[in-house]
Amino acid sequence: MASLKFTHAVVCRIPLSFRTRGEIELEEAKRQHEAYVRLLRELGLDVIELPPDESLPECVFVEDTAVVCNGIALITRPGAPTRVKEVETIRAVLKKELDLPIVEISDESAKLDGGDVLFTGREFFVGLSEWTNEAGARAVAAAFPEYPCTPVKVRPCIDPDENFDLDTLQVTESRHLKALVSMAGPDVICVGAGKAAQEVLKRIEREATFSYQTLTVPEDIAANVLYVNGTLIHRSSDEIPESTKVFAEKVDFARRSLSMSELAKAGSGLTSCCLLFRRTRHIRSL
User: Fold this and answer.
1) Which residues form the active site (predicted)?
2) 273 an active-site residue?
């Protein structure tokens, strides 16, 4: 089993163009991101901050651009063609500045977003979504052959809730796998209580090579958590009041909370804004 302890994180500051993503209060989004980065440093990570790129409104979501495991970086092929430049930036940073071995995806038909890749420490699950396809999942399997790799279908979420009328049924936009399930600790999967999340969990449990514990939270937006060096990071209690009670009751190790209200308006989760990895050699500042 690979360690879920990390030494480094790559993040990217928020550009002014980020305000184009919905009704976002830009200054508050920046404050939330600064608190996020500050907490990562408090947890012992060497954080590399990239400058914002005004031509790339989504550049803050660095998770989608690479999958890093055991000191190797697989460069992704995001499903949105507008994000190609983001990948080029991250490739240069990981290769030239951080000196990580780089793996490229040779299959031009492949689509892969890092937000669809869940690494449990024992195996990979790759969500097949609007942004990631079977060829993308095969690329993950090829890059990290020492771990089992299982594709998992991610269905679009349904809106409104379970009391819907068939005449008004609407399918909302797809979500990344890690918006529905994420790692809340060693061998612990955090999952939302909603239908889409529970369906994904059933598929994972059916295909998994290991039996995981599950931590089910009543608010689906609470399912995306970060587990960093022995500490669970979840959203603030005013955003997920019921799930916070579950975390307080079920989690017996360190917890920290962060406000993500503005970042979440652009579809961001706690995992979205960083690339985490373990490395022992010194990395110079950018």
Assistant:
1) 176, 273
2) yes
The model's pTM is 0.91
Omega cis (within 30) before 57: no
The single residue of 8, 12, 157, 176 carrying the catalytic annotation is 176
| CA dist., res. 148 & res. 144, Å (int) | 8
Question: Side chain identity at 231, as an amino acid letter?
Answer: T
Catalytic one of 12, 59, 69, 273: 273
Residue 234 is a catalytic residue = no
Give the residue among 137, 166, 176, 133 at the shortest CA–CA distance from 266. Answer: 176
Token representation of residue 213: 């514990």
Question: pLDDT tens across 39-96, in order?
Answer: 999 999 999 999 999 999 999 999 999 999 999 999 999 877 788 899 999 999 999 9
CB of 140 closer than 8 Å to CB of 126: yes
Residue type for position 104: E
